[in-house]
Amino acid sequence: MPASTPRRGFLKGAALAGAGLMTGSVAKAAPLPIPESNTVMGDPIPAESYGLPTEFEKHVKRRRSDVFKNKQNFSDWSMTPLQHQIGIVTPNGLFFERHHNGVAKIDPDKHRLVIHGLVDRPLEFSMDDIVRYPSVSRFHFMECSGNTLTDWREPKSVTVQQSHGLLACAQWTGVPLSWLLAEAGVKPEGKWVMFEGGDGSGHLRSIPIEKVMDDALLVYGQNGERLRAEQGYPIRAFFPGWEGNTCVKWLRRIKVVAEPDQIRGETARYSDPMPNGKWRQFSMVMECKSVITSPSGGMSLKGPGLYEVQGFAWSGNGKITNVDLTFDGGRTWREAAIEGPALDKCLTRFRYRWNWDGGPAKLASRAMDSTGYVQPTVEDIARVREISGFVQHHNGIFPWTVAQSGEVSNAIA
Amino acid sequence: MPASTPRRGFLKGAALAGAGLMTGSVAKAAPLPIPESNTVMGDPIPAESYGLPTEFEKHVKRRRSDVFKNKQNFSDWSMTPLQHQIGIVTPNGLFFERHHNGVAKIDPDKHRLVIHGLVDRPLEFSMDDIVRYPSVSRFHFMECSGNTLTDWREPKSVTVQQSHGLLACAQWTGVPLSWLLAEAGVKPEGKWVMFEGGDGSGHLRSIPIEKVMDDALLVYGQNGERLRAEQGYPIRAFFPGWEGNTCVKWLRRIKVVAEPDQIRGETARYSDPMPNGKWRQFSMVMECKSVITSPSGGMSLKGPGLYEVQGFAWSGNGKITNVDLTFDGGRTWREAAIEGPALDKCLTRFRYRWNWDGGPAKLASRAMDSTGYVQPTVEDIARVREISGFVQHHNGIFPWTVAQSGEVSNAIA
């Protein structure tokens, strides 16, 4: 528990806030009523199944953006319902999607992956070859470079699903790329590696060889099972802590090259306008960021009292070491408790017991990572970058207001 | 990588075993053929969705036992396909089930949980009260006391799903029971706590107060979302490292008592026959255990060469510190690599690069936990317990044979 909130404090608060004590004694209800579920047969187990959530949870869905609607839905995205996520693992069924030409359908038995270009020995792999190969499993977040793209000039997002839902976390399983490139033998002039997808857009990215040899993976497993089709089945690239679009899905080709390809996804897209009118390219690391998911936009607090404020912090550069919270719009800050395991380049949950006095409040979180980097304010970012159009790679501190009514709203602006 | 297997060793092995090198150069295939998936539009993203696995993975299912078939399927179980599990997180849709009277259907808005008995202040909670309460998220395995129940006198299980599939792992989210009992105030004479479910069987277990106050949870979240109906929606008890049947599902009543209830589930069931004719009760800790999942029964090795042997180790008493493997039926043992994070009372994956010479082999794993306890042999267990009927709490070393043909089979006997 956060040292900042003594246990008694919560008990008193709980009494006020109806989180237990005020729901009262059962004496009045004795003898306990027998619910109908105790009196009937339940549903039997089918011979075989892949289970689904109960009907009572069917409101928990990933959704296309209601804020910025595409004219068509082939180059599109769906967003993770972070306000409903419990723990750090995002269920595969709720993991956000981003496609440039819809979801490709690939038969794993026919699929081939090729490593070629500036290598001593070009290689071709079937999926059986890849899965037969030794593997590793690692927990990492994935964030789209355009997460929190739309709110900086005009706060249109109502919920944290709309503002930050291009973010999710999973345990990924696959083969370290450095092992396979060691088998192919990278020539001295090979400084970049190009990854191409087998989808209709032939999505393409060039990655510096240093990152590829450091911790890049060829991923075929996610959260205990094979990749879902919308996540690149049967195989995708994965670069821990780097923008999602580098993690090329439906991967069919890996080419070692001397220079980046300078393709559309590296020039007209995924690049950042600077104050001097120039554009920054290859800014692929998703820097330290955090957001409060409870309370968050669209929620309503049920009167004054103690609430456990929760949220996520993450960094593409390392582990989360600290998360501070403000309840007065940034005038004062208090330290939240970080829940372990706090893993490298992984969603990390923070918790803080907040006694809401019932007055207006402005909440925000500020994360720090193991490199010492502190999540910047919107103003900090505006000083070094041009905030115009869709702002890629925006990791600014994001506030919510709590009105006297208890209603929680997007407070950017 | 395991120090015991030098990198070169794997490369050579891979060359032999077709895990890369032998799939050959792509030169012969240049220019690369363009797959059809590169030439067509993919599937669009629906407005909202809860995603499912691709059709190419529909063979991965949890299944009722083919080995020991129930006459009816209300008191029944389904088993996790461990041979297909990647990483340590079991997808909720594949998490094994065990019900005494089918799956109860409970409306969370109507559900009430009561804490009463030897307490100063009996309490009643709605689900809103529970979820409003501060929570924790922790990774833990869950194993049925009857896992590997049927094979000890006659090896009938073909696959590891059939032999060990009453095992799974998840990140669980809920409220530590010690916090709520502190609010209720446990009287000095309260030494046990009885948990009752809201299902048709009214499943009941008594748990010593020490375990309840140590690390027991009231769980409503599993792997990032609310519990599935078959896992006790909207709320269940969870005792890390203890047999699954203690983790009462559809929980409606918690009663602090002086003595255990000595109900059927504590006498005629879940108790262990001893050599002296007496029965051991309340043996609820699932002790240190492991099993090789790849290669495992029903699989077939494709010729001599290097294979990454993988499996799971777990202990209800702590963390896994060592896993040894034998390939000659227990004559010699080698140390496997343990993949982190190796968490408390959690599935832990081990890996070892084995160069199969193509001859008959007998594989098994032997785990050790942080208490120094070593997983016993079947003979060790037979010396202290009566191996008759269904053997509960059997954590014996479990072997697979690899025939010259490459076929892998259950080698218990």
Automatic annotation (TrEMBL), chains A, B:
<dbReference type="InterPro" id="IPR006311">
    <property type="entry name" value="TAT_signal"/>
</dbReference>
<dbReference type="InterPro" id="IPR036374">
    <property type="entry name" value="OxRdtase_Mopterin-bd_sf"/>
</dbReference>
<protein>
    <submittedName>
        <fullName>Sulfite dehydrogenase</fullName>
        <ecNumber>1.8.2.1</ecNumber>
    </submittedName>
</protein>
<dbReference type="InterPro" id="IPR030835">
    <property type="entry name" value="Sulfite_DH_SoxC"/>
</dbReference>
<keyword id="KW-0500">Molybdenum</keyword>
<keyword id="KW-0732">Signal</keyword>
<dbReference type="Pfam" id="PF00174">
    <property type="entry name" value="Oxidored_molyb"/>
</dbReference>
<dbReference type="InterPro" id="IPR019546">
    <property type="entry name" value="TAT_signal_bac_arc"/>
</dbReference>
<dbReference type="InterPro" id="IPR014756">
    <property type="entry name" value="Ig_E-set"/>
</dbReference>
<dbReference type="Pfam" id="PF03404">
    <property type="entry name" value="Mo-co_dimer"/>
</dbReference>
<keyword id="KW-0560">Oxidoreductase</keyword>
<dbReference type="GO" id="GO:0050310">
    <property type="term" value="F:sulfite dehydrogenase activity"/>
</dbReference>
<feature type="domain" description="Moybdenum cofactor oxidoreductase dimerisation">
    <location>
        <begin position="283"/>
        <end position="385"/>
    </location>
</feature>
<dbReference type="InterPro" id="IPR008335">
    <property type="entry name" value="Mopterin_OxRdtase_euk"/>
</dbReference>
<feature type="signal peptide">
    <location>
        <begin position="1"/>
        <end position="29"/>
    </location>
</feature>
<keyword id="KW-0479">Metal-binding</keyword>
<dbReference type="InterPro" id="IPR005066">
    <property type="entry name" value="MoCF_OxRdtse_dimer"/>
</dbReference>
<dbReference type="InterPro" id="IPR000572">
    <property type="entry name" value="OxRdtase_Mopterin-bd_dom"/>
</dbReference>
<feature type="domain" description="Oxidoreductase molybdopterin-binding">
    <location>
        <begin position="100"/>
        <end position="261"/>
    </location>
</feature>
